[in-house]
Amino acid sequence: MQDIEDIIIGIFKESCHLKEIFVNENVVRIVKIVEVITEALKGGGKILLFGNGGSAADAQHLAAEFVNRFIIERPPLPAIALSTDTSVITSIGNDYSFSDIFSKQIKAIGKPGDIAWGISTSGSSPNVIKAFNEAKKLGMITIALAGKDGGNAEEIVDYPLVVSSNSVPRIQEVHITIGHVICQMVDYKLFQKPEE
Length: 196
Known about the structure:
The protein has seven helices and five strands. By secondary structure, it is an alpha/beta fold.
């Protein structure tokens, strides 16, 4: 039987290795996403984040980083996690369908030039895909954090970031790292190295 310490070390190594592979394959795309989010915020846009389960928690976590602060002291940035209002979610789910819980919110508060940032480890969660489709109709900029082969999201969104793994926990670990990196770089571009 494998020693528990070896299992723990193996999990950490796998997580680190996956992050290394991901950043080497996607650093240029991450830079572009940082630029797009920075421009949207400078233009008065907001970030709408959404996902299910652990991805809902990541959406909420990242919205808090933008609204409150990440590392540096700076003004709050407009971001909303669409997974946090239980009255809205349960009324839409009850009266219409669970697949509508994000798309109806996008339709209500999304504007052209806003960011629709969905998170789905499979890349194919029906309510996330429906939200992306609604966001596209409204002229919003779409970003997906996905896993596995990218699912349907990779084909739909403007900027997909796909973690090539079938392990949900490892995908989620990379997703929150990506989110933190994007927050830090947006702060850097907006407040530490403003454009000339």
